[in-house]
Write a structure and sequence with these properties.
This protein has helices at residues 20-30, 43-50, 68-72, 74-82, 113-134, 159-179, 197-200, 205-215, 226-236; strands at 8-12, 34-39, 60-62, 88-93, 138-148, 185-191, 247-250. Helix 6 links the parallel strand 5 and strand 6. The N and C termini lie far apart (42 Å). Helix 1 (20-30) crosses helix 9 and helix 5 (113-134) runs parallel beside helix 6 (159-179). Strands 3-2-1-4-5-6-7 form a 7-stranded parallel sheet, with helices on both faces. By secondary structure, the chain is α/β, with parallel strands linked by helices. The protein has one domain: Rossmann fold, CATH 3.40.50.720.
């Protein structure tokens, strides 16, 4: 019996099989869930190819979380694949973007507002947008889980993405407040640095990765996405029925160390 038996989960923002979203979709399927994944634009064809590498090839939805028409049509897209009575038990927000040429790698003081606004919309505001688009399908007790990178401190090279993640963390708390009365839980998983497509785009991020294993009490494997995916799936399960507005750290314990 799996942790997510009988549940239907949407994992939004799956591009490569090296992504946290892909690892989450895989673990969710292994734990008994029916999974849908999404992407948009030029990346959509890549997502359709890598979907075949999952244990069960899932439906791939076209979803740009900054496009009002895509959001308005999301519920109908889900129903087109799963039937008119389709419902969701969980949504995973695995979405973030900041222009690496203008916002990352020591460019904080020069970040132009249009690029900052895009980063905040895609990486933070979209958590609310996605949750609202899915609300007609969400069963009571459903979970919304997003992915963050500890925004309580300033990191080398992370710059405006750190600000965007701080917005995401605040957004999750307000969503937890407003969706809680509807029986919907909202939580985040704060992972340590992992080798993903997004991480490769951050100039100087390697320096951060290199010190993580040394300072983490449990050590840290930046190529292993499974611990993070398992935490996401646990929060989607029935084992956290009274937990919302929380940030669960999956970072080897790095966040708790002073030096």
């Amino acid at each position: 019996m799996g942790l997510l038996d009988g549940k239907t989960i949407l994992v939004a923002g799956v591009t490569m099989d090296s992504s946290i979203g892909f690892a989450t979709a895989k673990v969710a399927q292994e734990q008994g869930a029916t999974v849908l994944i999404s992407n948009f634009g030029r990346a959509l064809s890549i997502t359709r190819r890598i979907a075949k590498r999952l244990p069960v090839e899932p439906p791939v939805l076209e979803l740009d979380v900054t496009d009002a028409e895509h959001l308005a049509g999301l519920a109908d897209q889900v129903r087109s694949h799963l039937g008119e009575d389709a419902a969701l038990d969980g949504v995973v927000h695995s979405i973030a973007y900041g222009n690496p040429e203008t916002l990352l790698g020591g460019k904080f003081l020069d970040g132009p507002w249009p690029d900052v606004a895009q980063a905040v919309q895609v990486s933070a505001y979209s958590l609310m947008s996605l949750a609202q688009a899915c609300r007609p399908l969400l069963r009571p007790g459903a979970g919304v889980v997003g992915l963050t990178f500890d925004a309580t401190v300033a990191w080398p090279a992370y710059d405006w993405m750190g600000v965007a993640k701080a917005g995401l963390e605040s957004c999750a708390r307000y969503l937890a407040r407003d969706l809680g009365p509807h029986g919907i839980r909202v939580n985040l998983v704060s992972a340590g640095p992992l080798k993903t497509l997004a991480a490769k785009a951050i100039p100087g991020f390697e320096a951060l990765e290199s010190m993580w294993d040394e300072r983490s009490p449990l050590g840290w494997d930046n190529a292993d996405h499974v611990p993070t995916a398992k935490a996401v799936c646990a929060l989607l399960s029935d084992f956290f029925p009274a937990t919302t507005g929380e940030i669960v750290h999956v970072d080897g314990g790095y966040h708790a160390m002073g030096a």
